[in-house]
């Protein structure tokens, strides 16, 4: 019902804008009543968006308990679990006494992370480099209740164009191996299970100077949402997590702030909110950003991102050439 009402308000906004522009273009006098009506529609639309986004945020947390009840006793597999968001999620889930399988490419980091988690709960590790196409059928032996596709790689700011090797790595890590791993897990996955795909908000607007990375996240989102429809009848919940900036090694952001959470704070928001929506922005101040971005034309967002990334690129090149 909320989604239908949301779309109705969007249509009313379009109709109001159409009549306003039509009157302006043909030279008709625009009466104050028409302007006030358009303004009221806009305010109603804005109020509804605030209510709707807050409802989603609160509901995801209220209903979150079902997830841990459904997968109790089974295993949670997390890719890219030796750093950043993946590692923080693994540690948070370990404190909840969930059984954890961590996947990573660095043997030393993997062993250290496994040792840290094993102090809290059962933990297994799988050494695997997602930058190279992998086969997973022989790897999946446990009863997986939740798969978190977290492994990701981005392009470098110090290059104008992504080289062919890096393009292959981005697609292999962000798309190909995530899909292949999911297919292998699904062959043995029971109902009331969960597939969580960690994406990015760059999937929703232009992202110059990170074009391949943004495209890979757009593909991940499309696949995730489509898969959610496909697996719904099997009672397997698929969810795409859509964050803005998070302070991690990959984002090159060192200091967190109100709108850029630390890896721990963001991971905590994911764990506390998964299991309700097919697409989810779990961190509250990222939801606030979504509300503002809703009213900014895409062309302005595209140019703003371009100028910001250009500035970061100059700083990165300066640092590299020292």
UniProtKB/TrEMBL annotation:
Q: Which Pfam families match?
A: adh_short
Instruction: Cite the EC number.
Output: 1.1.1.-, 1.1.1.62
Q: Which keywords does this Swiss-Prot/TrEMBL entry list?
A: Membrane, Oxidoreductase, Transmembrane, Transmembrane helix
**TM segment ranges:** 7-27, 33-55, 284-306
Q: Which GO terms describe its molecular function?
A: estradiol 17-beta-dehydrogenase [NAD(P)+] activity
Family membership noted in the UniProt record: Belongs to the short-chain dehydrogenases/reductases (SDR) family.
Protein name (Swiss-Prot/TrEMBL): 17 beta-hydroxysteroid dehydrogenase type 3, HSD17B3
Q: Which organism is it from?
A: Trachipleistophora hominis (Microsporidian parasite)
Which lineage ranks, top first, belong to the organism behind this chain? Eukaryota, Fungi, Fungi incertae sedis, Microsporidia, Pleistophoridae
